[in-house]
Amino acid sequence: MSHVPSSWSVTSLGELLVELRSGIFVSRPGIENTGRPILRISAVRPMALHDDDVRYVPASTVIANEANSRIDEGDLLFTRYSGNPEYVGACARVRHRAPNLLYPDKLIRGRVIPGLVDPGYLEAVMSAPQTRAVIRRLLKTTAGQVGISGSDLRSVPVPIAPYCEQLRIVAAIEEQFSRLYAGVAALERVRQNLKRMRAAVLVDAFAHLETTLSATSGQELFPYVTSGSRGWAKYYSSDGPEFLRIGNVPRTGIDLDIAEVQRVNPPANAEGRRTRVQSGDLLISITADLGRVAVIPPTLGEAYINQHLALARPIDGAVPRYLGWYLASPFGLRQWDNLRRGATKIGLGLDDIRSLRIPIPTSDVQQSTVDVIEAAWEGFQWLEQSLIDCERRAQHLRSSLLTAAFSGRLVAQDPTDEPAAILLERIAAERASSNGDKPAWTRKPRLRREGVTA
After folding, report:
1. Which of 230, 258, 311, 398 is the most buried (most CB within 10 A)?
2. Of the residues 358, 376, 399, which one is the last residue of a structural domain?
3. Which three-class secondary structure state does DSSP give residue 29?
4. Cα–Cα distances in Å, from 151 out to 91, 117, 428?
């Protein structure tokens, strides 16, 4: 923070704000989408406010000091707590008036002096890598939550540029970011097209077989079907065979994802033997995200499955990867959708797997179908990795732009600009006249108990 142009100064965030105020505490928000909207914590992301990410306070609820819990154009919102430490201290600017929108106690509202500190400048500087590094050192964990206190947030050092230069920096950042956002949006469109292309390949592979062959039941195709073992946490180990869970079964494709895997020392009994997988077995998710499929490769060693997976062992003559690709295709997904059941818990039973219907051509046709699909899939995987690489480069460029901006290297300095040291004196005078030389740090107002309704 010390390497800034001579016309800049380094101060604390608190010295630049006339107010820092925590939001309202709501213990029982409304369930229906009626009442007064209140932002969720997830609405605030670095340099991005998603003001449609709300829950609701019932209209009959009485809120103490409600006027102080609203946001206005130019306000800054900071995240006090988050499940993801990278979002703690995140800052987003309110770009439009929202007179009825409230904010919760896990967010903090900050206000600046118009004409002296630009809110867009602070929003960007709080998202810069050098500032985020400081914030990470101030994080504390309380009752399992990672957060930052209002006083620590106020202490974060901020490089402050002359006011006119602040405006030039914000304009330059927004110009560059608009190009980045357009590029990222284009990447997302490519990703959606890629998803459609994958589905189209699978439809083309099986459409003719669907119309020309009689389907074979899962009862005939899978003589051995079982679900995984429960209560194996006591067998968890740092070494030993792999214990496959739902996270190891992909959402796209049929290849196991074993980047992260649990290991076990299984019991030497029938239960241990029952759920041991073999090459060519199909694994199917039967809870939560239903119908995800993976095929056990011949290279996998000893492994077992947990209760969220079913194991279906195909008959001789059936090509396992043909079966897997079919069940992962739109034709298979349609059957999974039809098999969903349970009023309070959605899941699949073993009889559901036996009731599946799959067209089975000769082994040669099955294998040629797999070959066509997997040749296309190699190209899709290359495209997917290219998209990931492009998104990483965009993120790196974003960080580099912010680093340059707050090191004085993004826009030129103008010697006629009022130096930041004088600007800070004016800010201090304004703060002294408005609130006794102390930025308001006010804790959350609470709901009056007599007015709380479910």
Report:
1. 311
2. 358
3. coil
4. 16, 20, 18
- HEC per residue, 85-131: HHHCCCEEECCCCEEEEECECCEEEEECCCCCCCHHHHHHHCCCHHH
Joined together, the tokens standing for residue 304 give: 């077992």
Asked whether residue 188 is assigned to any structural domain, the reply reads yes
End-of-domain residue from the set 341, 358, 375: 358
Structure tokens at 269: 């009994």
How many residues are recorded in the chain? Answer: 454
Proportion of the chain in helix, strand, coil states, percent, rounded to 5: 40, 25, 35
CA–CA gap between residue 290 and residue 328 (Å, rounded) = 11
User: In the prediction, which pLDDT does 124 show?
Assistant: 97
Range of the domain at 226: 216-358
377: CB partners within 8 A, 6+ apart: 198, 201, 253
The pLDDT of residue 364: 96
Tell me the CATH number at 154: 3.90.220.20
* pLDDT of residue 445 exceeding 70: no
Q: How many structural domains does the chain have?
A: 3
Tens digits of residue pLDDT in 246-290: 999 999 999 999 888 899 999 888 888 899 999 999 999 998 788
Instruction: Name, in order, each residue with C-beta under 8 angstroms of 444's C-beta and a sequence gap of 6 or more.
Output: 22, 23, 24, 25, 105
Closest Cα partner for 206 from 16, 333, 116? 333
| Judgement on whether residues 268 and 379 belong to the same structural domain of the protein | no
Tell me whether residue 73 is in a domain.
yes
Structural domain contains residue 172: no
For residues 338 and 365, state if they share a domain. no
What's the pLDDT score for residue 447? 45
Indicate if the pLDDT at residue 183 is higher than 90: yes
Beta bridge partners of 414: none
CA neighbor of 281 nearest in space, from 354, 209, 336, 224: 224
65-74 burial: b if 16+ Cβ within 10 Å, else e: eeebbbbeee
* Backbone φ and ψ of 21, nearest 5°: -130, 130
Reading the block at residue 186, the tokens are 């284009």
Tell me the β-bridge partners of 242: 263, 303
